[in-house]
């Protein structure tokens, strides 16, 4: 398990599906094992950028991807006995109300789900860790081109869905400001998740500038 390139539940499911397909094609087990162990994921696929705090960068940009990646990050925090989860999400520009509404709904749903899970755990074990989830949004106006610019109506639908679900959030127009805020706020024992498409693509370079390395 430790040698797998991914540890999130949805990644494990994908690996198992690939293994099943290989077995059905009579590919030798030794070759399958070697292929899984040596596979290198694509850029921004649950990529670990830093360790204190742990910073995970993922291209999650649709409802299922968002929910699965947030769950995987929360699971990682539990497995490593980390504290809180900070989510930085880039709103998708020039994608319209429908997709942004669905993405916002997905964020609200998974955050509520994980908060309930933590509450249930504490109810069963009063000594269990209270793990909070913080959400920060960005329009990334400092880094996206005109094809990915977030229009006001796209922000409005994203905010409205979260407001309806009573999910608190911060919003920064610039990605530099959003990530700067998170890195100043998060503790070294927290987990930071960066999700989104074009608006979050430059995040690793932004963090290098912010952190000086």
Overall description:
The protein is an alpha/beta fold and 213 residues long. It has helices spanning 9-24, 29-38, 63-79, 96-124, 152-164, 175-185, 203-211, and strands at residues 47-51, 54-58, 85-90, 133-138, 170-172, 191-195. The protein has a six-stranded mixed sheet with strand order 1-2-6-3-4-5. The model has no long low-confidence stretch (mean pLDDT 92).
Shape: globular
Compute the CA-based radius of gyration: 18 Å
Tell me what portion of residues adopts beta-strand conformation.
5-15%
Structural class: alpha/beta
User: Counting H and I runs of at least 4 residues, what is the number of helices?
Assistant: 7
Helix content: 40-55%
Number of strands: 6
Spans where pLDDT lies below 50 across 5 or more residues: none
Question: Average pLDDT, to the nearest integer?
Answer: 92
For the termini, the CA-CA separation is 31 Å
Give the strand order of the largest sheet, numbering strands 1, 2, ... along the chain.
1-2-6-3-4-5
CATH C-level category of the largest domain: Alpha Beta
Name the descriptors:
7 helices; Protein-Tyrosine Phosphatase, Chain A; about 210 residues; six-stranded mixed beta sheet; alpha/beta
Map the helices and strands.
Blueprint: H1 9-24, H2 29-38, E1 47-51, E2 54-58, H3 63-79, E3 85-90, H4 96-124, E4 133-138, H5 152-164, E5 170-172, H6 175-185, E6 191-195, H7 203-211
Parallel strand pairs: 2-6, 3-4, 3-6, 4-5
Antiparallel strand pairs: 1-2
């Amino acid at each position: 398990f430790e040698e797998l390139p991914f540890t999130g539940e949805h990644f494990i499911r994908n690996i198992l599906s690939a293994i099943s397909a290989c077995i059905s094609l009579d590919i030798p087990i030794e070759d399958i094992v070697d292929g899984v162990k040596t596979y290198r994921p694509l850029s921004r696929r649950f990529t670990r950028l830093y360790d204190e705090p742990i910073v995970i960068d993922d291209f999650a940009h649709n409802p299922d991807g968002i929910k699965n990646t947030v769950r995987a990050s929360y699971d990682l925090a539990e497995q490593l006995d980390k504290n809180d989860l900070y989510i930085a999400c880039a709103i998708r520009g020039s994608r319209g109300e429908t997709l942004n509404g669905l993405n916002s709904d997905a964020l609200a749903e998974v955050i509520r789900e994980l908060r309930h899970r933590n509450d249930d755990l504490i109810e069963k074990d009063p000594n269990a860790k209270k793990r909070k989830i913080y959400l920060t949004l960005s329009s990334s106006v400092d880094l996206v081109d005109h094809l990915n610019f977030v229009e006001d109506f796209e922000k409005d639908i994203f905010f409205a869905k979260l407001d309806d679900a009573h999910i608190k959030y911060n919003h920064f127009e610039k990605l530099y400001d959003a990530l700067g805020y998170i890195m100043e706020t998060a503790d070294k024992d927290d987990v930071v998740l960066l999700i989104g498409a074009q608006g979050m693509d430059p995040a690793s370079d932004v963090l290098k500038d912010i952190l000086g390395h």
